[in-house]
Amino acid sequence: MWHILNKEVNSFFDSLIAYVVIVVFLTGVGLLLWVFPETSILTYGYADMYTLFSLTPYVFLFLIPAITMRSFAEEKKGGTMELLLTQPVTDWQLIVGKFLASWLIVVVALLPTLIYVFSVYQLGSPQGNLDMAGITGSYIGLLLLGGVFSAMGMLASSVTENQVIAFILAVFLCFIFFTGFSSVAALGTWGDYAYGIEQLGILYHYNAMSRGLIDLRNVVYLFSLIGIMLLITHLVLNSRKW
Questions:
Q1: Using one digit for the tens of pLDDT, what is the confidence trace for 40-72?
Q2: What's CA 173's distance to the chain center, in Å?
Q3: Residues 156 and 67 sit within 8 Å (Cβ to Cβ)
Q4: What's the pTM?
Q5: Mean pLDDT over all residues of the chain?
Q6: Are 157 and 240 in contact (CB under 8 A)?
Q7: Is omega for the bond preceding 126 within 30 degrees of 0, making it cis?
Q8: Helix and strand tally (H, E) in the chain?
Q9: 143: which residues sit within 8 A by CB, 6+ positions away?
Q10: Above 80 in pLDDT, residue 77?
Q11: 128: number of Cβ within 10 Å
Q12: b/e map 186-221, b = 16+ CB within 10 Å
């Protein structure tokens, strides 16, 4: 499994797309945080990180599928999937190794945003006037969200050998689970069931963590979703032996 992880990370950073994806992510978040008047902290006038944590999940909707789209699709298109399956690794080791590699890349892309936190910390009046509990909870939420989206991207990549299709499927899947349930619950036609429907979506649990309260139920939900997506990926690969 660790060999697979190391191979995937090295392969990703050996390609130009790795640096393009990370630079685009950091530039986009930086522009939203500091430049665009509608979302800029400087325009808003308050030293908080709401813009970063409210908009980054939507950037993740496109960033993470771009990272995961090649996981299995490239192997199948290049004819190397058969070779991988003949190696002394189990299907689970292959899946988990690729998943951890994708998740690690997301973490690497997210780490430089700590510079933005430091900058806002310095700009506070008085200095350091930040909700650190909320920021910590939001970062934990983003890290777990990155894991969930990575698992969904892996699933999308396992069902096709076309990377573009894998990307589109992953974006759709991530979008539906992130905001789809909240949107359906807000229709106003569900009565007492609306709250339960909203809890099925990721946005409800992410928002709860962003308030700085790390409830075990939210963490269990996100890890359970990762496990379910990886399990379905395993079933897909088992149903289509290459």
A1: 776 766 667 777 888 899 989 999 998 888 888
A2: 12
A3: no
A4: 0.88
A5: 83
A6: no
A7: yes
A8: 14, 0
A9: 106, 107, 110
A10: no
A11: 11
A12: eeeeeeeebeebbbebbbbbbbbbbeeeeeeebeeb
